[in-house]
Fold this protein.
Amino acid sequence: MRVRFAPSPTGALHIGGARTALFNWLLARHAGGKLVLRIEDTDRERSTPENVEQILDALRWLELDWDEGPILQTERSERHREALGALLDGGHAYRSNATAEDVKSYKQRHGDERGFRGEPEGEGAVRLRVPEEGETVVHDAIRGETRFAHVHLDDPVIARADGSVLYNFAVAIDDLDAGITHVVRGEDHLSNTPKQLLVLEAARAVGLDRSEARPPSPLPLYAHLPLLHGPDGKKLSKRHGAASVQELRDAGYLPASVRNYLALLGWGAGDDTTVLSTEELIERFTLERVSRNPARFDETKLKWLDGVHIRELPTEELATRVGEFLDGAGGHPGAREDERFAGAVAISQEKIHTLADFWPLSGFLLDGPQDDPPAREKWLGEDGRAVLADARTALAEVVDFDEASIREALEGVLTRRAVKPRAVYQPLRVAVSGTPISPGIFESVALLGREETLRRIDGVLEARRV
């Protein structure tokens, strides 16, 4: 098996493209085949080296490796011209000066359903000669057979007058030369497939599929993936949240959970299993389980799944990933050098859903309390400060400043005051963190240590006195 992922470098790698890359990667790894990475950079205006690097960066972050490439399509222009010449010499293509108006006039005479047929003339664009009779059948592993009657197909333009080839011709020749056995791509490419198959048939007819190195190549099997929609059922776009792989990375998602979630967009594991390791995805993945129906990308579900993956990580690995995130997109470089960092990650693991959640939840452990005026107003009024003063006294008397001893001391305050836990814990939480949300209060106070905890409490009490 030989598959390919062939993005156009006209921007960042979007989520739909990432899913296509993943499905090709899983298919190749499941079958022990090869994945070819080809960069289809024939859009002269929008294809840039920066965009190529963006795509490679996204694939590396997703941890999707490739076996051959990256191959730039523009570097194969000589081969494309050679193949074009072979089709012209063999009578499977011809030069035509026909304009859009000529095509329109032809259809007015023969009917809109009749495919345009030109006559060889001049030195204009090159058109592929579509057989007059018969049909081209697309054998699709997901959608079944789709038939395209030749009578309805125009002779497609496959090269400009200057000899530079167009997309459908270049793709077909590149697939032929790479020995691609399965073409897995988005449903939006289905209309391109009969044109590419006609190019492949013509190329085989003139012997372009044969060489001393390999026997004739069979036509590839196609698989057109269902469209991606947002939660509202409309075509996926930026209004639904993250639209590219880089945005998912910068939002703090783990590559493993992104792979897990993207795999479930249009594919089923065969049971109700949702949380799957990459090894399980490789073992189970087949095209037969890909649905024809549009799949819905819901970032809320991705975030939930990311939280599951985070809780399954060894704490040391999670600390490494959080640290790397803070050094980059997280905007807090060097945070992991703090002696409390590993402990802060450990007590946050059960509460965070993405790497980006760590700092808003636990950054106060490393960088001081946050500023949340509504929280101060709600929990540090006269009653809250009185409770906080009692809690300070109890904490100051703790001998072993560990979680168990801190819990016992604070529960003593609850008993003496005959109040509910939040009446004590929330004023203390706001005093040490600045916000009403944090990891467990006992764990947080123990990690801060006696001196820092009392210093923060005193800062609140003294500020209120002034």
In short: Residues 368-465 form a domain with the Arc Repressor Mutant, subunit A fold (CATH 1.10.10.350). Residues 441-465 form the longest helix (25 residues). DSSP finds 19 helices and twelve strands in the chain. The mean pLDDT is 94.
